[in-house]
Specification:
- This protein is an alpha+beta fold.
- Helices cover 34% and strands 25% of the residues.
- The chain is built from six helices and eight strands.
- The strands form two sheets. A four-stranded antiparallel sheet has the order 2-3-1-4.
- It is globular, with a radius of gyration of 16 Å.
Length: 181
């Protein structure tokens, strides 16, 4: 049975959107998914199902979450094979990674068109670089002392829901889940 990863947007950012991982696992199990696991408490759920359509899975899980939580949660599905490819991709081979540099992966439901891709690339600054690839955007951030991380410019450029994960988190998920399949 195929294994999938659901990346949930805005889970456990504080306040009313705090969800216990046990509850989330039970919710997925009640939707007839098997071998359900959560990976850190930030809305990463790994599960198996016979379903084959990412889109249908996203809709099913979003409806289930809306019913159980009382608010909308965007869901971004990837197969473990896709996750492996995402984690293996090196979008910034020229960059020197250090303690003040981080790479984040922005997950989208669909690929962006060239116009939106250009808007994202235009967000490049002295501290931020972007690479658009398939349904992901890779975001290299060089942190300034006291600098803050904001997705507002990206939200404006994309005009659609997305969720962000640290590339280190994705690589840890690849190491745990992709070698088993």
């Amino acid at each position: 049975m195929p294994r999938f990863v659901a990346f949930l947007r805005a889970i456990n950012l504080g306040g009313a959107r705090t969800v216990k991982m046990d509850f989330l696992r039970q919710l997925f199990e009640s939707a007839d998914f098997s071998d359900v696991e959560t990976f850190i408490a930030s809305g990463n759920v790994v599960f198996k199902t016979r379903a084959k359509s990412n889109k249908a899975l996203e809709r099913k899980i979003e409806a289930r979450l809306r019913e159980a939580l009382g608010y909308d949660v965007s869901v971004f599905i990837r197969t473990v094979a896709e996750l492996d490819e995402i984690g293996d991709y090196n979008p910034f081979p020229e960059a020197k990674m250090g303690q003040h540099t981080a790479c984040n992966i922005v997950f989208l439901k669909d690929m962006v068109d060239e116009k939106v891709a250009q808007k994202v690339k235009a967000l490049r600054t002295a501290t931020d670089q972007f690479r658009v690839r398939a349904r992901e955007i890779y975001w290299l951030r060089r942190r300034k002392a006291g600098g803050t991380f904001s997705t507002v410019p990206l939200e404006k450029a994309l005009g659609r829901p997305f969720t962000v994960r640290a590339s280190n988190t994705v690589r840890r998920m690849v190491a745990k889940y992709c070698s088993a399949d």
